[in-house]
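ok so dumb question maybe but i'm new to this and my supervisor (M.) told me to 'just get the structure for non-specific serine/threonine protein kinase' and walked off. so i did the thing. is this what she meant?? sequence i used:
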Amino acid sequence: MSVLFARNIPVDVIPEDPYDSDIDPSEDRGTADEIEMFLDSWPELAQRFRILKKIGEGTFSSVYKAIDLKHDEHDNSTWVKQAGVNRNKTDVVHVALKRIYETSSANRIMSEIKMLADLTGSDCVVPIITAERKGDQVVIVLPYFEHQDFRDYFTSCKVDDIRCYMRQLFTALKALHEHGIMHRDIKPSNFMYNFITRRGMLTDFGLAQFQQRNVATRLVEAAKVQSSKTSKKPAATSFMENVEFGTSAKIPKNETRPSKKANRAGTRGFRAPEVLFKSQCQTTAIDVWSCGVTLLCFFTHCFPFFESNDDANAVVELACIFGTNKMEEVARLHNVTWQSNLPKLKKESIGFKALCELVTGDGLFTRQIPPEGYDLLERCLELDPAKRITAKDALNHPFIRN
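this is what came out, is it supposed to look like this??
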C-alpha cells in the first residue's frame, strides 16, 4: 500500500475505543456485499475506517460515508477548520471515501489528486485529507459534509436563500478558476449545500481539467473575426455530422468535411453551448454556464430544467429560449453550421423574466426576483463564452453583493 497524498505527521497518538457502528441496515444486500468485499480486499483500510453506507456513485467511482477510526492519531488542522468540523474528543468523525474504479486512467486520478491538493485552503472547495493506493485500487479520503438534497429545498427558497447559495458556489468557482481549473461538472449534486448553516462545498473533481494556455485569447479573437463577417456561408465543419435530426434541424447534404472532436464531458442539461458544438476552445466559462442553469432552476422551480438525451436536441432546447437567430450565430462562432426547420421555433429570444413567469405559471414568486437577479441569469447564460460573466465578477454583481 502506498500513500499518494499524505496527511501531516501524526501527533499525540490517543488510543480510541472501537465503535459499535456497522453498515447501515437500510443498505440493500447487494450494496452491503459490495462494501464487505471492498474492505476484505483492503484489510489495512478496514482497520482505519468503518464504512457505514454508500452515498454516491458515478461512472468512475463510488463514494461511501465512513467513520475515521484513527482521526486523533493525525494532525488534521489543515482541513478540519476548512470543512467546518466541530467536535469533542469523544465525538466520531465522519469522512467520505471516494473509491476510484480500475477503469479510470492513472493520469485522471493523479490529476484529480493534484487539483485537490492545489486547492487546499480554498473556501467552499472540499479539502483532501489523504489518498492511498493498493494495487490497482485508489481511495481518496475527504471530509463528510452534512447537506440536504437540492430537490428538498430549491422550490421553497426565498430570494435571499438563492443569493446565499449562489454566492457560495461562485466563491468555489473563483478559487478553481484562479488556479486555471475547469470543473466541467457543476450541478447541484456536486455542490454539497447545508441549507441550515448556509455553507456549501464543491466536490467531485473526476472530470476537472486544467485550462490550456491562451485558449481564452483564441476564443476572443475568434469572436472578433466572426463579428466582422457578413457572409452566411456554411462554416468549415457541420454540427453533429451523421446524426439524424428528424424535424429539429438540418445539415447540408453530402457533407464530406471531417467531424469535430472535442471534450464533451459533463452532465446533460448543464453543458454549455461551446461543449454541445464541440468547440476546441473551452474555458472556465463552461462552469459559469452551469451555474446559470442552476440559477434558472431556482427561478423557475423546475429541476432539471433541460432534459434532452442528446446534443442535437439540447441545442434545440436552447433555441426555444434564445431563438434560432442567436443559435445560428453562436454556431458560426464555433465554426459550425446549425439550422432549424421546426416551425414552432421563434427567431427571437423569449427573455428570461418572461420565461420564468411562463414556466412557473405564477407571477407571485417571479415578481419577488429583483431585476439584478434576471441580469445575473442572463450574464451567466450568455451564449458567447468570451462575453459570459466570470465567477470573480459574479461575486461583485449587485444580486450577489446585496
